[in-house]
Structures are given as structure tokens and as C-alpha cells.
Design a protein that fits this description.
Layout lengths: L2 H16 L5 E2 L1 H12 L5 H10 L3 E4 L6 E4 L27 H7 L20 E3 L3 E3 L13 H11 L5 E5 L7 E5 L1 H12 L8 E6 L2 H12 L6 H17 L5 H12 L3 H11 L3 H8 L5 H7 L5 H12 L8 H9 L3 E2 L3 H6 L1 H6 L4 E3 L9 E3 L2 H22 L4 E5 L14 E4 L8 H4 L3 E6 L5 E10 L14 H21 L26 E3 L5 E3 L7 H6 L1 H23 L6 H5 L14 H7 L2
Parallel strand pairs: 5-7, 6-8, 12-14
Antiparallel strand pairs: 1-3, 2-3, 4-8, 6-7, 9-11, 10-11, 13-15, 14-15, 16-17
Helix pairs in contact: 2-3, 5-6, 7-8, 8-9, 8-10, 9-10, 12-14, 19-21
Length: 601
């Protein structure tokens, strides 16, 4: 329990004591009253200690049992009930907001302390019918919850805590309620129930409009505040600083952090959360997603990226909006500053190319940065690699070299025309074979280039089945085509994993022509990739053959267009160059997106 909460309870008890009509009380009853007004449960024992410290005396309760505390008999020469506790204007819930604002002002307000401290024993009151709920009140959600019970409590025990108000725009003698909106609603309900008059005098604390939003947020933070209301309130306060002439963003955040007794990082996080896509923020407000899920979505500042992942998560039959799943999806949309490709390219080169850098507010160390334009990093890495890998390869006796941007060494880019992948064969080639092959390089964790164990070798046509007959090129090509279509049909016929525990965790290998896929492999982040073999009956393959053939023809047409674009000088995209899964998109041989979702998620 914070010192501020303790002071708040003490003030509530002191106000109860200050009322001359309050002469006896059970500590448990007073504890319940304090909890109803402040939301803080201190317990009867602590309340009893406060009463004893104020000189109240104990006696057995004749009816209820337990200990009954009563006001002591006043000493001679002193009027009964003259013991004075803090007035309603000694509000302790504000984080030095109202007091600081008032201290800046030299104007005297009617009924307030001329010193401007906002901490006075004079009871400032305003008729209830002159109070309106302020648009600056930060509680936008569930404001009516529990009002009936609070109205009954105020009717029975009185108003223990003043309202925080500011002069309304437009004058007319009205004041806006920023702190104590629920109490204002409860008082209004008591008017409807004919318990109090419309012009009932309400104890208030008057602050400037500039301080009202902060005062409202400070009070509501002590209660069960809707997180969407909280983040929007902090964003509005920061915006108010800017409109008030505080233009430096760091100064705004630091000032707000000081006012609320928290860290700059906490304020930054809340302001970022307030900038979530409206649909996601609304889901947080309605309790459809957790605050941790909202933080995961806020890991990327682009609302379009957030919404794309959000809509995909909504379609899941179970475990939707899991923070871990959202973070994994966003991880492919940004690069950390310590990513190996970023180290290879250089942060300065990335910035010079127009790349954006932002602090990672939720999932890393406070000084960790993320790069929001990974496609720029990929392009720069490929441009730099095209210059360097050729020289390195030729220096080692290879015909040429290519740079792989895949995540793992066993994930290879598409081979150049006339070549095929030879896994783990690079060190077994003779010098003459190397001279006709292409080396594959990757970027190491330290940001340098290193050759992988696989390479590309010449792809020779298969020999004819009967050496005595001339080789039939057309028949061989037809057989190759049929085999490629059968591979696609087998994938289409694979049992779907959508809606099973495997959803979101499976993927096709990078290339349908992979000669080798390891049974198990360990990635750099410690994740294991385990191969799972599925038997597909020949009849199932034939059933999907026509569909697979149509996909095959479409892919041939798309590849032809891509080759024409390259010949025309168009630069391929980073995703196309990166190759399949490593680039975060399905490889060329995998069917359409809807097919992938059905078969491999």
C-alpha cells in the first residue's frame, strides 16, 4: 500500500471525525464506508488504530458485540466537536497536480485559500445544480457501475471526499467535475430519489482546466480503471502539453512522468497504446483482448499491420489474440537493431536510405531499437552482397557466389537457371567441380559473410532409360512436368492442420526440389524445427491432380512474367529475392494462399 493511499484513508477518517454529528462508530463500518468512497480496503484493525490516535475511546458494543469507538468528552473550555481534521480541500489523491497548478496562479478564487496552495481548512462548496460532468473526465467506460450502492452510502454516511472541479467554458456560473464523476452521478441519483435538493452544497476543490484532466486521471488510477480509458487519458494530457507550448517530446514525457510519479517508459507505452488501431483499442475497452495482447499489437506502430494480424487472430476458433503469437507475427515485420543483416548493412546506411528507427517499448531493454522497414535492410544487404560475394567466391576457386538472406543455413534461395542445390556438398567438390559451381554465402551473427556447406552445381539432364535409343527430350520434359504436378497434388491432398494444435507452427520446405530436409534442426533463437512425414495415398494425389495442374500452369505464367520484368530492368522485391519462407512469404512452389491455410497454416 502506497504512502499516498494511506494518507488518503487517513484524510477520509479525519473528515468523518470532523463532523460533529459523528459520535460513535464500529471500525468495521467505517472501514466499509472508506472503501466505498475511496476503493481502498484498509481493514477494521487499521481504522481502529487511526481512531485511537485521534483520541477516540473504546467500549463494548451492547448489541453487535466487538469494540465500539466513541468521541471523547471535550475538555473544559473547548466546544464539543471542535477537533478539526482535513477539510474536503485537503484532497490527497492528486499527484501534486492541483497544488502545483494553483501555486503557479496568483489569482484568488472565491472560497479558496489566497495562498494558492489548494490546501485549506475552509470548506468550498458549489450547488449541485451548478456542476456538470467534464469532458476532461477520463473515465469513459463503466461510469454507471456501482452508482446505486454509492448513492446509498453517501445518503447514509455523508460525502467523505470532495469533488475536483474547474470553471466551465462559457461561464454561467457552472463548474465541470473532473475528479469525482462517480460521486457526482451518485449525488444526482439522490436528487432523483428526493433525498437531497437540486442545489445541495457539494464540497469541491477548484483547480485550473489545465490541471483537471491530470486530476481526473490521478483519482481514477486509484480505482479499477478501464485500460483503454487510461491510455487515452495519458495521450490527451501529452497533447495538452503540446498545445500549451511544451513542444519537446522528451520534455513532455518526462514532465508527465514526474507528475504521476512513474517512469518515462510507462508514459511512452501508454501513449503508444492510445495510438492502436481503433478496432483494437475498442476490443481492449470491451475486454475482448487483454492488456498484454494490446501491448503485443502496439509492437508495430503501423495500424495497417496491426489490423492485418488482428483480423487473422479474430478468425481463430481458440487461443485467439495470444500475445506470443502476435509478437511472432510482428517479428517478421520489423528488425531489431542487433539483427545480423542490420549489422552487415549498417544503421547509418539504413537511415540514409530513408529507413525508420523506433524504440522497442514493450519487449526489449529500454535502449533497444527496432527498424520498421526490413525491406530496405534486405535490399541494402543484397546490393552490398552482390559486390562482395562474387569476389569471395572467385578467391576460393568458385565460378561465382550468391548471398542467401534465409534465416537458416539449410534454407537456400532458388538456384540460378541451369543449376540445382547440392546440400552439404561444398567441401567435397574437387577444384574442377568448384570451378563450375556456385558458392552460397550467408550473413553471420556478427554481421560478416561466411560460406555455407551447401552450394549450387550444374543440373544435367537425366540420361535416357535405354542407352541404345536416342534421348527423347520432349518425353523427358513431360515426365518432369508430371512429377512436379504430382508433388503439388500431394501437398494439396495433405490433411489440413487448420483448427488443430499444429496451426501456425507448420510450413512447407523452401523448395519442392530440395534434395534434403533435416529430420531435426535447431535455429539461432533456440527453436527446434522437426520434420514430420505424412503418407498420401496415390488415389488422393490423382484426385487433386487437375487442381495441381492448374496451379502449375499459373506459376509458369507468373515466372515468365517475372523473367520478362527482370529483362526489362525491373528490380525484384526483397521478398522474391529472399526466397520462400525465409522472406516471410510462401515459396513459389507452394499453392495459393488459401491452399496454404488449408494444408500447412
Amino acid at each position: 500500500m502506497s504512502d499516498q493511499d494511506k494518507a488518503r484513508v487517513k484524510a477520509a477518517v479525519a473528515r468523518f471525525i470532523a463532523e460533529p454529528g459523528n459520535t460513535k462508530v464500529l471500525p468495521g463500518d467505517l472501514a466499509a464506508l472508506v472503501k466505498a468512497e475511496t476503493g481502498i480496503d484498509f481493514g477494521a484493525t487499521t481504522i481502529a488504530r487511526y481512531l485511537s490516535a485521534e483520541g477516540w475511546q473504546r467500549e463494548p458494543h451492547p448489541a453487535k458485540g466487538g469494540v465500539h469507538y466513541f468521541r471523547p468528552t471535550p475538555k473544559k473550555g473547548r466546544a464539543a466537536g471542535s477537533r478539526r481534521g482535513p477539510s474536503p480541500n485537503s484532497e490527497t489523491t492528486l499527484p501534486d497536480v492541483a497544488g502545483e497548478q494553483a501555486a503557479r496562479s496568483k489569482r484568488d478564487r472565491p472560497g479558496t485559500n489566497p495562498t494558492g496552495t489548494g490546501d485549506t481548512h475552509m470548506k468550498t462548496t458549489i450547488p449541485l445544480n451548478k456542476l456538470i460532468l467534464s469532458p476532461l473526465n477520463v473515465r469513459k467506460t463503466d461510469g454507471e457501475v456501482g452508482i446505486e450502492a454509492l448513492a446509498d452510502s453517501i445518503h447514509e454516511k455523508g460525502l467523505l471526499q470532495n469533488l475536483v472541479v474547474a470553471e466551465a467554458l462559457g461561464g454561467k456560473g457552472l463548474h465541470e467535475v473532473g475528479g469525482g464523476g462517480r460521486r457526482w452521478r451518485a449525488l444526482s441519483l439522490n436528487v432523483k430519489k428526493k433525498r437531497i435538493a437540486r442545489d445541495w452544497d457539494v464540497p469541491v476543490k477548484i483547480v485550473s482546466r489545465e490541471a483537471l484532466a491530470e486530476a481526473s486521471l490521478a483519482e481514477n488510477l486509484r480505482e479499477d480503471m478501464n485500460p483503454a480509458d487510461e491510455v487515452e487519458a495519458f495521450a490527451a494530457i501529452i497533447q495538452g502539453y503540446a498545445e500549451g507550448g511544451m513542444n519537446d517530446r522528451r520534455e513532455q514525457l518526462a514532465h508527465c512522468a514526474r507528475r504521476f510519479g512513474t517512469t518515462v517508459r510507462y508514459i511512452e507505452q501508454r501513449v503508444r497504446l492510445a495510438d492502436l488501431a481503433p478496432a483494437i483499442l475498442d476490443a481492449l475497452r470491451k475486454g475482448e483482448i487483454t492488456l498484454d495482447s494490446a501491448k503485443a499489437y502496439a509492437g508495430h506502430p503501423d495500424q495497417a499491420v496491426q489490423l492485418k494480424i488482428f483480423e487473422a487472430e479474430k478468425k481463430k476458433p481458440y487461443n485467439a489474440h495470444s500475445p506470443g503469437t502476435i509478437r511472432d507475427a510482428i517479428a517478421g515485420k520489423v528488425y531489431a537493431a542487433d539483427n545480423k543483416l542490420v549489422i552487415y548493412v549498417g544503421l547509418d546506411a539504413y537511415r540514409d536510405a530513408g529507413g525508420r528507427v523506433e524504440a522497442d517499448l514493450f519487449f526489449g531493454a529500454e535502449d533497444r531499437e527496432v527498424l520498421l522497414d526490413p525491406s530496405i535492410v534486405d535490399r541494402l544487404a543484397r546490393e552490398k552482397g552482390d559486390i562482395e560475394v562474387g569476389k569471395l567466391a572467385q578467391g576460393e576457386g568458385w565460378a561465382d557466389g550468391v548471398l542467401s538472406l534465409a534465416k537458416q543455413s539449410w534454407q537456400l534461395p532458388d538456384p540460378p537457371a541451369g543449376f540445382k542445390a547440392a546440400y552439404n556438398a561444398a567441401d567435397r567438390l574437387t577444384p574442377d567441380q568448384r570451378d563450375a559451381s556456385i558458392a552460397i554465402f550467408e550473413v553471420s551473427a556478427a554481421g560478416g559473410l561466411r560460406r555455407v556447406e551447401s552450394c549450387f552445381i550444374k543440373a544435367e539432364p537425366a540420361p535416357p532409360a535405354n542407352p541404345g535409343k536416342p534421348f527423347d527430350q520432349a518425353a523427358w520434359e513431360a515426365e518432369q512436368r508430371k512429377e512436379a504436378i504430382e508433388y503439388k497434388a500431394a501437398r494439396l491432398a495433405a490433411p489440413p492442420v487448420a483448427g488443430t494444435p499444429l496451426e501456425g507452427r507448420t510450413f512447407w520446405p523452401d523448395n519442392a526440389n530440395d534434395d534434403y530436409v533435416p529430420s531435426i534442426a535447431k535455429e539461432e533463437d533456440g527453436t527446434f524445427v522437426v520434420a514430420l512425414l505424412v503418407r498420401i495415398p496415390a488415389a488422393d494425389v490423382q484426385e487433386r491432380f487437375a487442381e495441381a495442374e492448374a496451379l502449375y500452369e499459373r506459376e509458369l505464367a507468373a515466372k515468365a512474367e517475372e523473367e520478362e520484368a527482370k529483362e526489362a530492368g525491373a528490380e525484384p522485391t526483397a521478398d522474391e529475392d529472399a526466397g520462400g519462407e525465409a522472406a516471410g512469404t510462401p515459396p513459389a512452389e507452394v499453392p495459393a494462399a488459401e491452399t496454404i491455410a488449408e494444408t500447412a497454416s
